[in-house]
Amino acid sequence: MRKIDLVHYYESIAQWMLPHLKNRPVSLVRAPTGITGQLFFQKHPESKMPAMKELDPALWPEHAALLAVDSVEALVSAAQMNVVEFHTWNSKIARINQPDRFVLDLDPGEGVTWPMLQEAAELTRVMLSELGLESWLKTSGGKGLHVVVPITPKLGFDEVKAFSQAVVKHMARVIPSKFVAVMGSKNRVGKIFIDYLRNGHGQTTACAFSARSRPGMGVSMPVAWDQLRELKGGAQWTIATAREYLSFQKEDPWSGYWKKRQAITRAIKLLA
DNA sequence: GGCTGCT
DNA sequence: AGCAGCCAACGCAGT
DNA sequence: ACTGCG
Ligand SMILES: [Mn+2]
Ligand SMILES: [Mn+2]
């Protein structure tokens, strides 16, 4: 895959991706010698990234300024600077310490089949639904799936993260054959780790429409829940195929996500 | 890939 | 002008 | 104190 293919990909999907990047700090995964070479992670601006926005350093005291991408130009110029992946915070600049969503990142352990992951995602949706929370699904662009839960920004990162951990612990307790709540790959074999650790302050998850720096260059694609059973994998869409797929989509499968207002306060009590 | 400093 | 070397995050979880 | 992790 050539750099120009990546640049063209981001240019072509910018209209869909920019709403997901808007007003959020972003971290970058860069691949100056290609995705088979050494990658590095970048959180702070460097002198020559003209179109990218440098955020107020006060957003994260004791650290250098964070970055944001708020235009097609910034997205394309980043790709020209070998940025492959864009990872976003779960809060927006206006309420930087109050996340407006949390993510359950379904990470399959060794030996987990795709149908098992599909079933796990459906179980996650049902669990959240029983807690009164509506969620949205996207492919990760890698091996797994991301379940995203928008919330009204009110509680802090520690509380939201603790709640997300409680959800995962509950699922691992009810269905221990399928889920684990701890990260280590050791007892993850044949099971799915639901990574709640993405929900801490300053933590990030691959943004919707971000490419991934893996062979094949999958992309994170938002889908409707009723597409889950026909999905073929976490990297079903790639930088080579996403544009054509999107050209046939009439409706945003996440149209409800943008307007959703829901709180986790009741769900916290239900789980306690 | 951009920047700095050395030759 | 050309080139070599260096740089580009961070904190939590678990042991 | 140390490593693995994303
Ligand atoms: Mn994942
Ligand atoms: Mn993960």
TrEMBL record:
Entry-linked Pfam families: LigD_Prim-Pol (PF21686)
InterPro entries: LigD_pol_dom, NHEJ_LigD, PaeLigD_Pol-like
Listed GO MF terms: ligase activity
Chain segments annotated as transmembrane: none
Xref: Gene3D superfamilies: DNA primase, PRIM domain
Xref: CDD domains: PaeLigD_Pol_like
Stated name of the protein: DNA ligase D
Annotated source species: Acidovorax soli
